[in-house]
Design a protein that fits this description.
The complex is a heterotetramer, with two copies of chain A (289 residues) and two copies of chain B (312 residues). With 289 residues, chain A is α/β, with parallel strands linked by helices. Chain A folds into two domains: 118 residues, Translation factors (Elongation Factor Tu (Ef-tu), domain 3, Beta Barrel); 152 residues, Rossmann fold (3-Layer(aba) Sandwich). Chain A contains five helices and 15 strands. In chain A, strands 4-3-7-1-2-6-5 form a seven-stranded antiparallel beta sheet. Chain A has a six-stranded mixed beta sheet with strand order 10-9-8-11-12-15, with helices on both faces. A two-stranded antiparallel sheet of chain A has the order 13-14. In chain A, strand 8, helix 2 and strand 9 form a beta-alpha-beta unit. The radius of gyration of chain A is 19 Å and the shape is globular. Chain A starts with 26 loop residues before the first strand and ends in a 7-residue tail after the last strand. Chain B is built from eight helices and 14 strands. Chain B has an eight-stranded parallel beta sheet with strand order 3-14-13-10-9-8-7-4. Chain B has a single domain, classed as Alpha-Beta Barrel (TIM Barrel). The longest helix of chain B has 16 residues. The chains are: A alpha/beta (289), B alpha/beta (312). At the B-C interface, strand 11, strand 12, helix 5 and helix 6 of B face strand 11, strand 12, helix 5 and helix 6 of C. One FE2/S2 (inorganic) cluster binds next to loops of chain A.
Chain lengths: 289, 312, 312, 289
């Protein structure tokens, strides 16, 4: 927790939060760290023991996490993190994060047994149309953390998934197993062998459309790939969804910190809150960031 | 049982804890019921439609944040039709924060808000007076007096006036508001500040400067509450960096009758509930029967302010 | 090799890093040599003998502190005889901070300091003008103009004027100082603030209110440096919450020519050395040949300040 | 360390501190925690591995210690702590502290292997006149931490010591062994059996003076006991020293936060900095606090 009592130790307040009431669909809970393990030089996989509403989080939703202070950093705001996996029967919520700045450096210091405050589930997740037979998921970087549970959700609904995972090098592609495990086709494209080049990615997308494997598009993690997918989707009338990021404070629609520009179906510009109206938006309405 | 009730002029509140304007919305009702709050205060609305500021609109700075949200607004009609009904189901009185670019337009907007369901008006006068040199009304006593006079004529509702900490003489501004009919003061809004990204050389906020809030500004807001409470007879509502029941006690001791919790709600959405419970527990432990006894109870008798400090 | 030299008017400094008045004394020479500093700045001295404020004089508040040291002083003669010689062995130019209760007395004290070994005068005008209503000179343009005019006539030495952040219009005060002959501005002093002990109900400082300093005030001081640097042509020396080389870079980008490190020295006595080294390393990494290129290099072109924020 | 870089990770600066130069008698060093063990409910004994100037600390001197941030507290200022023991040949510096507020709560979280910043040695320690044969040391509470190394220093100089240790109860008297080990007479007085009553303590002092065991008085940790000792000292012309406490910021004489009122030999009032002019002062010049 980054909130700190500077003053005299005060009576511990007992919050009167009727968390079980149906009107309350978001909660601030204390979860316990089960594991917090680096997956490679940059990314850390955190597994939490959580209860209650947290276990209802869906792919594309996120939590606003209080990151601990360290000797070097005193993160003040919470950090939004997409849910990477929920295993409800085992009370487990998982995250995959990239160590970047003050907040994630703080998270990376958590040890099994430590407690962490988790506000959520927040935002609107991905939605799947039962009419779809096959979808295409295109992700890069930490965007894969957001897309991994979507692929599983699709597989669970009997929807076929082709996942195109883009990264600097093969070593940095995470979660290939998570995607592959649910029986999906996985194509890895990298900067190293130039296969991640937009021209090539476009070629793959066209091939999938032709093959009838692209009833819908999903993307996260790269502005360039989002624009590419949006263009192809518009051209071929493929519906699409994108999970967006924006700096946040509250995560609950209160502060208006997290707005981005969108265009309405009639082409009007509109500001929307990524935390409340998103983070998943229609690909056709998303704009470059 | 500690009696948590307080009175802001004619308005009785079940407890002294409420949100600060712009840091609160219906969204928080997904976490707890507003029935537990002393009052609810809306995001500032304006009569004219207003778009938003450029992003980034937020920057984390130490134990606080900068924001440059500004006051995006969909106008009064949208507020009355769509936002107000969201609060109907709660018992907490609804305080509507308003702003306008001239004293006359301030009058216009509050005239439209003389509606059942609205318990008080909070005038956010930390906005520029475009008829003068564009400085915020609350920067000076004269422009404060003018706008409060206009507001007082325009509304029979309890009138709270929210001051800015960026003025050089908050006590004089407080007096000007009181003399012209304010029923209470909210002390204070955000502190104008700035941050620059040393890697990109760019300001961290899309609007270059923005409002500083959170624990970092608490000692400044507390000082202003103390100065204002000494200067006026009307109730002062403390605001700025309050994050714990201890902070609320501190503001009440300095002279506040009630408190507003802002940024802390972003960090810990349950903060207001914890403050309510904590105030009760604090009073119980200290043998204080009524929370209102805390107001102005700071033991400063016989103490003197050093004349060589930079006293405004 | 990065060129760390900067010029404050006619005064050349080997690097832009120096202590803030009152947070530094000969005692620090027990840890490192002042030869490494751009300049040294003394605790403010007054002509009259002054005792101290009541204790407690310090309170820790979040990431900062409050102080009510005031300006205890043993007078000018004591300074010249006992303090000045302590600095003789160092190459860093000596800047003497002075204060006085009237413009005339400000003139008197600097006339006594027109001595070899003193490189510049820093006028701490965040002190009350007892001839007017007791508000600090630096609170208003008019009183600032008057005291700076007097000082300018009284000393041929480079004249730095230190402003207060407690004014509502620091840019106007900055202009008044420039127009009346200041060679540089120091922006800024401590922010007036307060803290109350909720167990004892007593103010945490013996003088009730005091000056807030440290990282918590950095975004406020930075904003004022930005505003002042836009308003004047003379160099601005940034001061307020600087604790790392990154902070120094941020102040220089905002428009500062040099920086003063205050409270951070209490937390980490080597801070100034680290800032000097860190500035050099930063410029080297960024391919910047001269640290002076950082001054005012913030990329704010095409950006606009939101008019609905509480702009002073 | 409680100083924190909020900004982009900056080049680590290499300080140009010629720590070995004779002019430099204070240093800010990073020590390593060897042990940090509770001695009873309130007090913690911390043993550090330290180098250089720190090992020259004398009884009565202190260090200004940077206390770590915790999930609850973010101490900003350093905290002054008397040196409890220095074992120079083993590079060891020890402290005894009472867990009270933000700083000491932070210190209490330190684990072996953690690093802690230590500024010192600071202030003027106790001084012993070779002409003295026997001294009396009177302490209470955490004042015992300050007096323990004095007793050892005296013993090492062949000066006999009588230690009067005052506490609420016998269980709370610390360091009895430290005092006893150096061959001293130890008298424990407690509130429990009212033996700590000023009347009784005065009786003990008078007895020691009569027995020729009181060439000098030393005290720390209680205003009441200090006043008592000062009165008796004045009455019988016994020289005395007292170690004072006052809230500090810099510890180096720069900030004037730590002043207290004293009286000069001619009875004039005078403000002195506890960190620089003290923390050990002449008992005859000390005033009530
Ligand atoms: C809906 C959503 C889901 C996210 N999911 C993940 C995830 O699963 N894994 C992951 O590693 N990161 C995710 N992020 C980004 C994450 O919130 C952090 O901001 C990012 O990890 C860097 O934070 P930091 O504290 O380490 O960096 P700092 O530099 O300390 O961050 C400073 C400020 O900038 C904000 N910020 C920095 N980068 C971003 C960003 N990319 N998006 C939004 N705000 C940012 C931080 O939240 C903080 O307020 C997500 C962001 C959003 C909005
Ligand atoms: C020369 C000297 C030597 C000391 N030696 C010891 C020691 O060996 N063991 C020990 O436990 N304590 C010692 N103290 C007191 C110690 O510095 C701490 O202040 C005290 O332990 C409480 O700090 P805290 O952060 O836990 O409490 P907090 O309540 O967080 O302290 C808040 C502020 O008040 C100051 N403060 C609180 N109590 C005292 C006090 N008694 N004296 C001075 N400042 C205080 C703190 O330094 C801090 O700035 C010494 C003080 C001085 C001046
Ligand atoms: C994101 C954000 C938006 C705000 N919007 C408004 C507003 O619309 N009207 C207003 O009067 N104050 C607004 N404020 C100021 C707060 O109401 C409050 O005065 C200030 O943040 C200080 O309190 P705090 O430190 O508890 O946040 C806003 C503050 C924040 C952080
Ligand atoms: C203990 C203390 C004493 C100070 N004394 C003076 C002084 O005598 N004259 C002065 O102009 N400023 C004085 N200041 C203000 C500092 O010079 C500086 O302007 C302020 O602390 C902000 O910088 P910082 O945040 O880096 O400390 C003092 C500050 C502190 C903390
Ligand atoms: S983060 Fe507050 S509105 Fe989205
Ligand atoms: S603590 Fe700074 S002068 Fe003593």
């Amino acid at each position: 927790m980054s909130t700190v009592a500077y003053e005299t130790d005060l009576e511990k307040a007992v919050p009167v939060v009727p968390a079980s009431s149906p009107a309350f669909d978001v909660a601030d809970i204390e979860a316990t760290v089960l594991a917090n393990t680096p997956v490679n030089d940059d990314y850390v996989h955190m597994i939490l023991d959580a209860r209650g509403l947290a276990l209802s989080a869906k792919a594309g939703q996120f939590f606003n996490i209080a990151c601990p202070a360290t000797t070097r950093d005193l993160p003040y705001l919470r950090r939004p993190m997409s849910v990477y996996r929920v295993v409800a029967p085992e009370d487990r919520v998982e995250f995959l994060y990239k160590v970047t700045g003050a907040g994630t450096r703080g998270l990376a210091t958590l040890r099994p047994g430590d407690r962490v405050s988790l506000l959520g589930p927040l935002g609107n997740g991905f939605s799947l149309d039962p009419a779809w037979k096959n979808i295409v998921v295109l992700g890069r970087g930490v965007g894969l953390a957001t897309l991994a549970p979507l692929a599983e959700m699709a597989a669970a609904s009997g929807i076929g998934v082709t996942a195109i995972l883009s990264a600097r090098s093969r070593a940095l592609v995470m979660s290939v197993d998570r995607f592959a495990n649910c029986g999906e086709r996985v194509e890895v494209v990298t900067d190293d062998d130039t296969s991640s080049d937009p021209v090539n990615v476009e070629r793959i997308l066209l091939r999938l459309i032709e093959a009838g494997k692209a009833d819908a598009f999903f993307t996260c993690g790269s502005n360039r790939l989002m624009l590419l997918m949006k263009r192809v989707a518009a051209q071929f009338g493929v519906p699409g969804q994108v999970a967006m990021e924006q700096q946040m404070a509250c995560g609950l629609g209160m502060c208006f910190c997290c707005v981005r520009n969108f265009e309405t179906p009639d082409g009007e510009p509109e500001q929307r809150r990524v935390c409340l109206e998103g983070p998943v938006f229609k690909l056709s309405e998303a704009l470059s960031w | 049982m500690v009696d948590l009730r307080v009175k802001i002029g004619s308005l009785a509140l079940k407890n002294p804890v409420m949100p600060a304007s712009g840091t609160f919305s219906e969204g928080l009702a997904r976490i707890f019921s507003f029935d537990h709050l002393g009052a609810v205060v809306t995001k500032t609305i304006t009569a004219e439609l207003r778009g938003g500021n450029p992003t980034p609109r937020v920057a984390e700075v130490g134990q606080g944040m900068l924001n440059s949200i500004g006051i995006p607004s969909k106008g009064v009609a949208n507020f009355v039709e769509h936002i107000m009904p969201e609060y109907e189901r709660f018992s907490a009185p609804l305080v509507v924060s308003v702003s306008a670019p001239t004293a006359e337009l301030f009058g216009d907007i509050v005239r439209q808000l003389n509606l059942p369901g609205i318990a008080a008006i909070e005038a956010n006068i930390s906005c520029p007076n475009i008829e003068e040199d564009g400085k915020a009304f609350a920067m000076r006593s004269k422009s404060t007096a003018a706008v409060v006079r206009e507001l007082r004529c325009a509304t029979p509702l309890p009138l709270w006036v929210k001051l800015t900490p960026n003025t050089g003489d908050v006590a004089a501004v407080a007096c000007a508001a009181e003399e012209n009919g304010a029923d209470a003061l909210v002390v204070a809004n955000t502190v104008l500040a700035m941050s620059i990204d040393i890697e990109t050389f760019r300001p961290r906020l899309g609007s270059i400067m923005g409002g500083y809030s959170g624990p970092a500004i608490k000692p400044i807001a507390l000082r202003m509450v103390y100065q204002c409470a000494k200067a006026v007879e009307i109730p002062v509502i403390g605001c700025g960096g309050i994050a714990t029941a201890g902070d609320a006690v501190e503001f009440m001791l300095a002279g506040a009758t009630a408190v507003q919790v802002g940024t802390a709600t972003f960090i810990k959405p349950n903060t207001m509930l914890e403050v309510v419970e904590g105030l009760s527990a604090f009073c119980a432990r200290k043998g204080i029967a009524r929370v209102s006894e805390l107001t102005g109870a700071v033991k400063d008798r016989g103490m003197h302010v050093d004349k060589l400090e930079a006293l405004p």
